[in-house]
Amino acid sequence: MSHQEYRRTSYETWEAMAPGWERWRAQLEDSLTPLRTWLITQLAPQPGDTVLELGAGPGDTGFAAAVLVGDAGRLISSDFSPEMVEIARRRGAELGLENVDYRVIDAERIDLDVASVDGVLCRSAFMLVADPAAALSETRRVLRPGGRLAMSVWGAPERNPWASIGGGILAERGLLPPPEPGAPGVFSMASEERTRALLADAGFTDVRTDEVPVGFPFRDLEEYERWVSDLSGSFATVLRGLPEGELEALRAELRTAFEPYATQQGYELGGLALTAVAS
Cβ(279)–Cβ(146) under 8 Å? Predict the structure, then answer.
C-alpha cells in the first residue's frame, strides 16, 4: 500500500473508530495511568510553557500537562482525525480546562512555526503514521532549543498480549494479512534500536529510553470482544463479516489463548510500552 493510500484508509478508520474510543475512554485512561505518568514526569512541563500533543485521541495525557503549564501556558491538543479532536474538546470542557487549543494536525506536516513549542507529547501514535521519520523531523522542527519530546510506542508482540493474541489468531486463520516489514502498525517501532535511530536521524541528540508495563482488565471474553471491536478497525471489520460458526470457533480459540491471563475478576492482558524522552 502506498503512503498516500495508507493515509486515506487510516483517516477513514480513525474517524469511524472515534465513537468507540470515547465510550472506552475512562477504562483506557485507567489502564494507561502508568504510561501517562511517565510521559508527563519526563516532559516536566513548567508554568507558562506551550505543549503540543500529537495523536491526542481523547486528550487525557495532554490535559495532565495543561494543568501543570497553568493559565500562563497553553496546550495544543491535536489529532489528524476531526472526530477525535471533538472528543478531546468535550473532555476538556468536562474538566473545565481553558488553556487548551484544539487542532486538526497531521504529525507528518505540523502546521506550526519553527521553534514554537516547549514540549511535545505523543502517546502510541508515531508507529501508526505512514512516515514516522517525517513526523519526528517535524516534531524536532517545532521544538524550541532545549525543548523535549516525551513519546511512547508499543514494545515487542510477546510483551503485549492485549494486541498480539487477537491479531495473531486472525492472521493464522487468514482473516488478516501478516504485517509487512517496515509498514505502519502497532509493533512497527517495537525495536529500541529502530526508535533510537529514527530520533537521531530527526536531529534529537539526547535520547533516553525506558519500558513501562501496563495492564488491560476484562470481565470476560465478551467484554474483550466489544472493546477490540470498538477500538480496532481491522478487528471490527473481520468480526462483522464472519459467519456465526466461524465466529464461535474464533471465540473458542481466544478463550484458550486467554487462559494464562485469567484472574478472579476475569482476565488481565499485559502490555509493555517502549518510551523515550529526547531533546
Answer: yes
Q: Would you say the pTM of this structure is higher than 0.70?
A: yes
Q: Which residue in this structure is represented by grid cell 525495536? A: 191
Residue given cell 493474541 in the structure block: 165
Tell me what pLDDT residue 29 has: 96
Contacts of 255-262 with CB under 8 Å at 24 or more apart are 255/221, 257/165, 257/169, 258/165, 258/221, 258/224, 261/161
Q: What are phi and psi of 28, to 5 degrees?
A: -60, -45
Q: What is the distance between the alpha carbons of residues 166 and 234, in angstroms, rounded to a whole number?
A: 11
Cβ–Cβ contacts within 10 Å for residue 243, how many?
8
Q: What is the pLDDT of residue 240?
A: 80
- Nearest to residue 205, comparing CAs of 152, 153, 147? 147
Give the total residue count for the chain: 279
C-alpha cell at 77: 491538543
